[in-house]
Predict the structure of Rhs family protein.
Amino acid sequence: MRTQAQVPVVLFHAQSSFGYSASLVAQQLDFLKNNGYNTITPDELLDWMDYDTPLPPRPILITMDDNYIPVYDEVWPMLVARGMKAVNFAHTTYVGVVTGSGDHGDWLELQQMETSGAVLTESHTKNHLNLTTLSSSQAQDEIAGSKAAIEANMPGKVCRYLAYPYGAYNSTHVTMCQNAGYRAAFTTVNAFTYRTTPRYEIPRIGIDGASVATLQTKIGYTSLPPLPGNGWTLDNTDPNCTVVPTSGAWSTVTTGSPYGVNALTKAAGTGSAYVRWAAKVVQSGNYRVYARWTAAPDRATNAVYQITHAGGVTTVTVNQQANGGQWNLLGQWLFTTAQPAEVRLSDSANGTVSADAVWFEPVSSRVENYELY
């Protein structure tokens, strides 16, 4: 069984009683930035789930609940400085209101953050009440009313996402979210998000007060294979890896020195089955592209890789009976932010093909001991 591709969606509260401090969040953001993570929006997450739209390498969605004023005063500037983005789930009755738990951002502040693109505001209902304790009409007002308030007070904004207060909801509230026009809703279940995750039950991994070491474990960083050098890799378990057909044709193997926990193999076929690695390019430039396959005597001698780059599509044929379990240079091409970088391996070959991983290395860096095709 192939390991299912997953994306971490994390949650914290910018309030000291939850363990928040600006210095801690700065450490968390610096770790993500320095280790190749790229923040995404809910739209990007849902486009990946619904349409298999490529995400940037190591995608992560950062969310914050309750619209506490440090979101505006502290977190927003930190995100802007690092070129990162996040979501602020606000309960609309308390926008700009000081309560016992602290001050909350006002509509002008929310609009400033929205315009910058670094902090997007979405719904946390009107009054932050446990929806499961309310009547049907009350729950409907909380869900639909908050969406209406955000759209009325933030010109041009379409509110598409809701986070359930306290993570409390049932199937009735899922239906209410659908009918109100939300595209998805978020829970507080500590789990990863998969393509198959129900759209109105997207889990979020809590990172309130988490040290960098704890954050690494929670988001799965500690289980990732080490990068071979500069740039980014995509292996067969990456969210940016698509397998066609999705089940039955491709087998999982752990032998032959796979890059991560396993690799995929398939007997020779007609070309209708393939593995695609495709990611949104974060920085335009020339990249060396490497492929890795597992070693075995039945491998094809004419495995065909197709690389889609700024100049078009290039086909490279390789002998997978040689150099298994190592990185092999396919070539160097220009990739831009205008289109995803894509490598595709089909089953059209004279033997078993192995789909393990690809690596995009900026040309400014160097690597030794590769095989050029």
